[in-house]
């Protein structure tokens, strides 16, 4: 009797590598377009799968590398390394390096071990503003500036500093950080004065920091104890005044009331109430009441019957702390938008956001005690709730998106509601926050971010609804295994494409691995799948070189990679994905990149940095004639093997490190319902598999171990038997490029299992596109 069989044909791999828990989700449409394994495959717009691109070497480096455009046509590489900052020009030549901050003496504190993801930067004009967490509270922002003309240099590093006005006012934000209700009593209005607090405020380390007393600034000079110290007055402090009345003010005014003069506009805080007078501490800018004033307070009004009498400053709770300094620390995130430099992730006020004065990047002055005088003034505002603002990302339709540790908000900015003091409105988008040290990235009208916890990737999109202009979607559902057990490190999204038409999201992890998500845009949004949610196919990409950092600018994706090749000294270099490369760490052996050739020791071979190790060689034009694995001698020369067609002096000879790509579909299941043919009751066999390919340079068809697991059994997924499709057929010339075949290959795997597993494996360098996998299996 014939054994009942089921035939499945998969031509759509757009869902990428799915969780193994999907293997029985037959009714889920995503399973039909996904794979059990999709290691090192790139999903195409046609929904076929192709071998991923290789990585070509640019220059040696070990730190975080970012490509930055400083002016039209002038690209540089910005490098944050182990306690250093460097700049390379477009050819990979180092044009700036520093081990110290812009003050010329303080060592740069950030390290690879402490995490380079905590560094944030933005470009305004010819200056790069850099914030970081290392060295807190002395993590003062740095400013790296280019002169705009010198390609081989012209860079200077300085320490960010707020400007100071001619009158001594430091243009920095102030806010009440110390407990409220505590009063400050200055002994005088100018010079060096004594200061007395009504409760503990002063701490070691506050010397040299500023306070704002009634809107005027003073600098702490010395500390006797937590309540007593001295200060230098930077702006003359307001004194107090005694305001006389014809009738008793008791019952109308109380200590602590804020009162205002009707004619002068003067304002003060009531210090004491006497029989026919009150004493008030003046609050600038108007510093005297006049005899014709009618004094108004919360309890009523009373006309003065004579002029005021001045006195020394009084003890009031009307004072504020300096938000950023060497005691409280400096902002750890930076951005720019609407002509303003912005800072956030402020240690002293975690929910605070600072916007500079328009066009004046070192003017951050905001004091709640002083009224704003211009719409161009700096802004200091707080996100709602007990949040820590991690990032502000300029986004869709001019809005700004505020990513916090436990929430996400957007700030609407329009022509009718520009970003000015008093206009900031926080509108909630999500009560689920963003992961710290992983900066969100734009993808057209979408912002991609990693959710708090690191297991989910979210997308903020603008669907165009009036009442709900922005929504959040999970875009990593059914791919949790790619994120579980890993810590996301960086998101990179190219904003242009010169190598291929597809769009991808790259997310690297601290362990050196990488996942890549294929998406398509429709009307500015990520195109949706059958379930109406954004359709993104995620797949893992691995390499012999672990990824230390990942970034993207325009069409370029940069990687800092670490290679530990057996027998060779480990090395790190900067690479970029390259569709013309079929190995990683790819180099033209006889025409090294100038930046790498410049470091080659005299008398050494072109692969001196892999001495004692091995490389895979490719030749031809284009370079996909696979020559095999070669040894590198102690001086960096490739050891010849005498193979047919071997030409180690070829100008097209490429050396690099290979990878293996595995595409394992879900074997189709027979329906659980219907007429019984003992479906799902017995071990099954894949009786045939057929693979439709193009651009083929050879591959492997394999049956994988699928259980049962015993004490002596191999691990699940182990290759049990194979059929190799070679790059060259028997009558081909292996000294020439292999033919790029478009063909169908069939095979009958051996073995049975309740959950049979088969795969297409590309274990030799070269191109391959898989269009369809057909499987005939018993049920």
Global outline: elongated
Tell me the number of helical segments per DSSP (H or I, 4 or more residues long).
Answer: 1
Which whole number gives the mean pLDDT? Answer: 93
Share of residues in helices: under 10%
Uncertain runs with pLDDT below 50, 5 residues or more?
none
- The counted number of beta strands is 61
Count of discrete structural domains = 7
- Major sheet summary line: 7 strands, antiparallel
Rounded Rg = 34 Å
State the separation between the terminal residues, measured CA to CA.
14 Å
Derived from helix and strand composition plus strand pairing, the structural class reads mainly beta
Strand content: 35-45%
Record the strand order, biggest sheet: 16-29-19-20-21-18-17
Describe the structure.
By secondary structure, the chain is mainly β. The protein has one helix and 61 strands. The protein has a seven-stranded antiparallel sheet with strand order 16-29-19-20-21-18-17, with no helix packed on it. A seven-stranded antiparallel sheet has the order 27-26-23-24-25-22-28, with no helix packed on it. Strands 1, 5, 6, 56, 59 and 61 form a six-stranded antiparallel sheet that branches. The mean pLDDT is 93.
Task: Summarize the structure in short.
By secondary structure, this protein is mainly β. It contains 1 helix and 61 strands. Strand 24 and strand 25 form a beta hairpin.
Question: What are the key terms here?
Answer:
7-stranded antiparallel sheet; mainly beta; 7 domains; 1 helix; about 775 residues
């Amino acid at each position: 009797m014939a054994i009942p069989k089921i035939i499945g044909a998969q031509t759509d791999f757009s869902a990428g590598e799915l969780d193994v828990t999907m293997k029985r989700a037959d009714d889920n449409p995503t399973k039909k377009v996904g794979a059990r394994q999709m290691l090192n495959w790139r999903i195409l717009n046609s929904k076929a799968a192709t071998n991923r691109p290789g990585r070509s070497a640019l220059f040696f480096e070990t730190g975080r590398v970012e490509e930055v455009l400083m002016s039209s046509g002038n690209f540089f590489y910005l490098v944050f390394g182990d306690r250093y900052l460097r700049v390379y020009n477009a050819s990979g030549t180092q044009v700036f390096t520093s081990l110290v901050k812009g003050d010329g003496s303080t060592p740069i504190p950030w390290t690879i071990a402490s995490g380079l993801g905590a560094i944030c930067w933005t470009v305004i004009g010819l200056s790069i503003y850099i914030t970081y967490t290392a060295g807190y509270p002395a993590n003062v922002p740095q400013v790296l500036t280019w002169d705009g003309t010198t390609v081989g240099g012209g860079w200077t590093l300085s320490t960010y500093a707020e400007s100071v006005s001619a009158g001594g006012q430091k243009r920095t934000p102030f806010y009440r950080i110390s407990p409220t209700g505590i009063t400050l009593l200055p002994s005088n209005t100018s010079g060096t004065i004594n200061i007395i607090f009504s409760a503990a405020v002063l701490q070691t380390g506050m010397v040299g920091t500023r306070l704002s007393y009634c809107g005027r600034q003073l600098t702490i000079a010395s500390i006797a104890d937590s309540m007593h110290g001295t200060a230098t007055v930077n702006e003359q402090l307001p004194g107090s005044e005694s305001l006389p009345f014809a009738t008793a003010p008791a019952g109308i005014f109380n200590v602590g009331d804020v009162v205002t003069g009707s004619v002068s506009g003067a304002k003060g805080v009531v210090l004491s109430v006497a029989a026919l007078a009150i004493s008030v501490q003046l609050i600038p800018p108007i510093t005297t009441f006049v005899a014709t004033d009618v004094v108004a307070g919360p309890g009523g009004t009373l006309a003065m019957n004579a002029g005021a009498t001045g006195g020394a400053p009084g003890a009031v709770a009307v004072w504020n702390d300096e938000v950023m300094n060497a005691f409280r620390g400096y902002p750890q995130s930076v951005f720019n938008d609407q002509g303003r430099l912005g800072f956030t992730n402020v240690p002293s006020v975690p929910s605070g956001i600072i916007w500079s004065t328009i066009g004046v990047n070192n003017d951050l002055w905001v004091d709640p005690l002083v009224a704003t005088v211009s719409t161009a003034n700096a802004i200091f505002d707080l996100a709602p709730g007990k949040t820590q603002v991690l990032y502000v990302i300029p986004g869709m339709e001019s809005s700004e998106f505020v990513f916090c540790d436990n929430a996400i908000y957007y700030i609407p900015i329009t022509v009718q509601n520009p970003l000015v003091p008093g206009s900031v409105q926080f509108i909630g988008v999500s009560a689920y926050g963003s992961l710290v040290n992983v900066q969100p990235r734009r993808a057209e009208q979408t912002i991609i971010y990693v959710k708090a916890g690191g297991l989910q990737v979210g997308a903020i999109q603008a669907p165009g609804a009036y009442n709900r202009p922005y929504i959040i979607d999970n875009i990593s559902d059914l791919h949790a295994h790619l994120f579980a057990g890993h810590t996301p490190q960086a998101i990179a999204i190219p904003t242009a494409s010169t190598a291929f038409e597809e769009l991808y999201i790259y997310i690297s992890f601290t362990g050196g691995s990488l996942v890549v998500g294929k998406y398509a845009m429709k009307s500015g949004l990520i195109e949706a799948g059958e379930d109406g949610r954004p359709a993104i196919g995620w797949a893992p990409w691995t390499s012999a070189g672990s990824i230390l950092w990942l970034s993207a600018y325009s069409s370029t994706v940069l990687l800092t990679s670490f290679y530990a090749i057996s027998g060779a000294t480990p090395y790190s270099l900067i690479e970029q994905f390259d569709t013309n490369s079929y190995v990683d760490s790819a180099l033209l052996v006889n025409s090294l990149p100038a930046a790498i050739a410049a470091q080659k020791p005299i008398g050494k071979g072109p692969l001196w940095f892999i001495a004692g190790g091995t490389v895979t060689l490719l030749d031809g034009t284009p370079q996909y004639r696979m020559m095999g694995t070669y040894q590198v001698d102690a001086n960096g020369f490739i050891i010849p093997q005498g193979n047919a067609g071997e030409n180690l002096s070829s100008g097209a000879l490429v050396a690099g490190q290979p990878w293996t790509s595995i595409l394992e579909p879900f074997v189709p299941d027979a329906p659980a319902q219907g007429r019984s043919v003992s479906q799902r009751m017995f071990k099954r066999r894949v009786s045939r598999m057929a693979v439709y390919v193009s651009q083929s340079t050879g591959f492997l068809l394999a049956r994988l171990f699928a259980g049962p697991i015993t004490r002596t059994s191999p691990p699940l997924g182990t290759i049990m038997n194979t059929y190799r499709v070679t790059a060259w057929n028997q009558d081909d010339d292996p000294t020439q490029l292999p033919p790029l075949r478009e063909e169908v290959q069939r095979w009958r795997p051996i073995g049975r299992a309740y959950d049979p597993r088969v795969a297409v494996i590309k274990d030799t360098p070269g191109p391959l596109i898989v269009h369809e996998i057909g499987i005939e299996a018993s049920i």
